[in-house]
């Protein structure tokens, strides 16, 4: 008898940049909410994150709820900056001169470390805050438990396995619509994650999936499919081998993952 589906909760905390007069501008001070004290709104919360705005959503138990939470909070955030335009792009170049005029809290990056699943959970290097651009992430949170010690070796091993599975499904397939390589050179390389007491935060995706509602739906479907397959014993990844572009056809034909919609 096959295992029943694992009960999953899926959340996200994407970052978006703001534009004014056709140029990227700092989001510092534009809305209430900080990393430590997010500003609660319907279906989630919003905050300033360096030069960008960030929002997080309440965890969702199904695709419809996930899509609703994303669209609701993003719409609220858009209404909070009426003189600006939100732009979910993976990298935003501000220029060295503009960056030098920003307060330290706006330009600081990577204050909390994340980890690399492909090196057994080693800490990733801190990003270079001296770069004249900033990156926009689209992190996904996967919950399958609660109140677990994040330093528990068994939980860390579970997180690493889930992240490898996601790299070999969600991550590599996302390169079909996210062609930006500049971001990954600075932040969010393969295997990036943080263990959480409820599961894991997958930190590889950029914010590009916010650009089309069909991609939002696809992200949810691919995350849940990959984790459910893993739970039922289908390891869709090669141990100790990061994914490459050539693996997309393998995933499409052998594991029959849905390709993201063309946008």
How is this fold's topology laid out?
Layout: E1 9-20, E2 23-25, E3 39-41, E4 44-49, E5 52-57, H1 63-80, E6 85-87, E7 91-93, H2 96-100, H3 104-107, E8 115-116, E9 122-123, E10 133-135, E11 138-143, H4 153-174, H5 182-186, E12 192-196, E13 199-202, H6 213-231, H7 247-253
Antiparallel strand pairs: 1-2, 1-5, 1-6, 1-11, 3-4, 4-5, 7-10, 8-9, 8-12, 11-13, 12-13
User: What share of the residues lie within helices?
Assistant: 25-40%
CATH architecture: 2-Layer Sandwich
Biggest sheet features? 11 strands, antiparallel
Residue windows where pLDDT falls under 50 for at least 5 positions: none
How many discrete structural domains? 1
Radius of gyration from the alpha-carbon trace, in angstroms: 18 Å
Strand residues, percent: 15-25%
How many β strands by DSSP? 13
Characteristic terms for this protein:
single chain, 263 residues, alpha+beta, Creatine Kinase, Chain A, domain 2, 7 helices, globular
